[in-house]
Write a structure and sequence with these properties.
The chain has seven helices and six strands, in the order βαβαβααβαββαα. By secondary structure, the chain is an alpha/beta fold. The protein has a single domain, classed as HUPs (Rossmann fold), CATH 3.40.50.620. It has a six-stranded parallel β-sheet with strand order 3-2-1-4-5-6. Strand 1, helix 1 and strand 2 form a beta-alpha-beta unit.
Amino acid sequence: MKIGICGGTFDPFHRGHLDPILAVRETMQWDRVIFVPAYVQPFKQDIETASPFHRFTMAALATEAHDDFYVSTVELDRGAVSYTIDTLRQLRAEYSDASFDWIIGDDNLEKLHQWKSIDEIFQLANIVVLSRIGPIGPIGPIGPISFAKNPTVPISATEIRTRLREGRSIEDLVDARVSRYIQHYGLYRKGQS
């Protein structure tokens, strides 16, 4: 079994998280894609987010139409800063015969060398880079990575949160179920985290 794994804060989960993976999953031959909401990302420890429950639920709503997509609570259950290496070790114990592709956006490449236990990460998973920001320049030696060819979806969670605080529509940026969920719970409005 070949599994693509995509971690992130998903605050909120949007089309930029889903559409590029949908575009390349057959080419990458993923039998399953696992989305892993972070409890707290190492590079975003000082950023306030929606609750882990809300972020998990939005990811689950956005992916429920795809039978081969799953949302894991492995990092949320840990309840601490979420390091990729810890997640890969745990998933390796659960899927001992699978091969893993850890999916990142090209905007994460410049910090990849700072990831905890990056050499072991390269032993446990292939790193697959999806384009988020368009063509990128040369990257220094950071290990074995591959680049998927996907359409860019220029959406950011920051833009979505800003639109919501300003009372503007997000219908074109997120799944309709996610939009209804955000509206129902009043997430990201003025005065709310």
